[in-house]
Amino acid sequence: MGDSRLQPLVLSEDERLVLQGWAKRRTTAQGLAKRARIVLACADGLNNTAVAARLDTDRGTVSRWRTRFLQRRLDGLSDEPRPGVPRTITDAQVEEVVVRTLEEVPEGATHWSKRELARRVGISPTSVLRIWRAFGLQPWRTETFKISPDPLLIDKIRDVVGLYLAPPANAAVFAVDEKPQIQALERTAPVMPMVPGTPERRSFDYVRHGTVDLFAALNTATGKVIGRLSAQHRAVDFRDFLDEIDRQTDPGLAVHVICDNLSAHKAPVVHKWLLAHPRFDLHFTPTYSSWINQVERWFAELQRRCLERGVFCSLDELETALEDWIKTWNEQARPFKWTKTADQIIDRICRYCDRISGPGH
């Protein structure tokens, strides 16, 4: 075989999916994750030197795993057998652990624990955990999903993503949504500050001093946010927020507003307002697809950095904190970068639908 540095490394779709899964591992199988990232970088057309610089490793390591993959594909990334104590766990026991984990549950429970499965198979709990790690199994974890039933799913994805990746000329694009029922929570005891060796401590119970709704419009080009606090989020409140966006946007620009399918966004009072303001155009996200609205990413930052650990002794304190947060954000605003094309998103949804529509489901 010729010099591996001169051979193109091309991945099949299945190989890429497997490698991407391995590359995401953080706490287990670190060696395998690193090798997967090396191969994925090589498949992007980079040479060994460029891959080594990107992944902060040496060129010899990149060359070794590139060559091993070209020779043996995915099997080449596994560790070679090493000398040591003979194995005490048979292949049949490994298979039993994997099969029981995937196809059975213990009586009276929803999933296996390592101790329950160890007793059933006749090996140690540590061995069960090692097998789970080797096969990427985590029976204690669960995730939720929802496939949008929107009949216009594809059209709406193309519409919204098109505004992110190729916004119209002479136009402002805003990602808009409400964060309702933000609570002004006061802890029942003073927060104990962090000291060396001890994290910040707070009482688990609280006193609630009321709630407020926040309307937010994220300018996808600049990252700046227009915010408005309201006691409710009715159609008339949304209409008033559109007025606020209108006042703060250059009158010479068309305005594209991305929002979800809340009934208040489609109410007659809003429709009447839009007819009186023809420069505004509303674009609706697919049903159950808030992930495509960029302002949700901003709400996540607001929750993590302002609200989650905030202590507010009154509704006024909460409102002041929200206004200050928006002001601080806008002083150093930068836009979120959208990278996925509409075709990539649609292809991924189709692959996921294929998986959950198989015989096992």
TrEMBL record:
Domain Tc1-like transposase DDE, residue spans: 192-318
Single GO term (MF): nucleic acid binding
Family annotation (InterPro entries): Homeodomain-like_sf, MscS-like_channel, RNaseH-like_sf, RNaseH_sf, Tc1-like_DDE_dom, Transpos_IS630-like
NCBIfam families: transpos_IS630 (NF033545)
Protein name: Transposase
